[in-house]
Write a structure and sequence with these properties.
Helices cover about 20% and strands about 30% of the residues. It contains 8 helices and 20 strands. Strand 2 and strand 3 form a beta hairpin. It is globular.
Length: about 300
């Protein structure tokens, strides 16, 4: 099997949630493959894996797991009936994270475009988990809040608990990589900052956290820092940067967060956005793409 796999949460129309995996451009039903694998290997023992979050929390979300399941099945039976051939909808990769944590001003050019100094240590904030939506779902613009901006970002998902960990240890506790759009009510955020208030509400409206479509195991990416993030609105490039341009890399972010709160499996961390953020209008389509990870697309209304 290929070394690059992209896992996703999905459901058929009126169907139950399941896990899919894309390999070489072909999508397979991993939940079904897992049940067949269990029957062959251990007479049905092991957890059901219908949600990526359960797979992460049970410490089964590893590149080797996907490779082992499909390689084993391929030796004993055809895989054609495991291909996803019917229309389906994406669900967020992690549907109910305990926390969605974020880093502000993590690209120097973005800090500068908003008139802010480049921070000497990470700026931490959070988004409400209720703001989470999936690929192809709609970003809804709240009435009366003024300008609402897109902010494309690399998201990482924790695979193990992390408390007071070092940067050297931090990366080993990661499950994988995804994409997140840190949608922000910019005028409301500026007002709250001016008034000395937290900017939580400007980040946490319903549908202000598109995430997905894929969760890619960390071992499937040779060097995430060499990946490129591109954000397009109506097909026009608005943001573009290498992930190596981040002031604080992923291990540093995880280690820093872990000094202030315990990170749990399934927690989502958004790692900051590059320069080029701008307003969204009803009817826009915003796409956040990261090479090797995928493209997150959402209509705006």
């Amino acid at each position: 099997m290929a070394s690059i796999v992209k896992a996703f949460s999905f459901a058929y129309e009126n169907g139950n949630p399941q896990i899919g995996v894309e390999i070489d451009g072909q999508s397979y039903n991993f939940s079904l493959a897992w049940e067949l694998y269990k029957q062959f290997q251990s007479q049905g023992k092991g957890p059901r894996l219908d949600f990526l979050q359960i797979m992460v929390e049970a410490d089964f979300f590893h590149l080797e797991t996907f490779q082992e399941v499909f390689s084993t099945l391929k030796e004993i039976r055809p895989l054609d009936d495991l291909k996803i051939k019917k229309a389906f909808r994406f669900n967020p990769p992690i549907g109910r994270p305990q926390k969605i944590l974020c880093i502000g001003r993590n690209y120097p050019a973005h800090a500068q475009e908003l008139g802010n100094p480049v921070p000497e240590e990470p700026i931490l904030f959070a988004k409400s988990p209720s703001s989470l939506i999936a690929h192809n779902e709609t970003i809804r613009l709240p009435r009366g809040v003024g300008r609402v901006d897109f902010e494309g970002e690399l998201a990482v998902v924790m695979g193990k608990r992390a408390a007071q960990v070092s940067e050297k240890m931090a990366f080993e506790l990661l499950a994988g990589f995804s994409i997140l759009n840190d949608v922000t009510a910019r005028e409301l955020q500026k007002k709250d900052i001016k008034d000395g208030k937290p900017w939580f509400r400007s980040k946490s409206f319903d549908a202000f956290c598109p995430c997905g479509p894929y969760l890619v195991p960390k071992a499937a990416i040779a060097d995430y820092r060499q990946l490129q993030l591109t954000v397009r609105v109506n097909g026009i490039i608005k943001q573009q940067a290498r992930l190596s341009e981040m002031s604080f890399d992923v291990p540093a972010i995880i280690a820093y967060f872990s000094k202030h709160c315990t990170l749990e499996p399934g927690d989502i961390i958004a790692t900051g956005t590059p320069a080029g953020v701008g307003p969204l209008s009803s009817g826009d389509t915003v796409e956040c793409e990261i090479t090797q990870i995928g493209t997150l697309s959402n209509l705006v209304q």
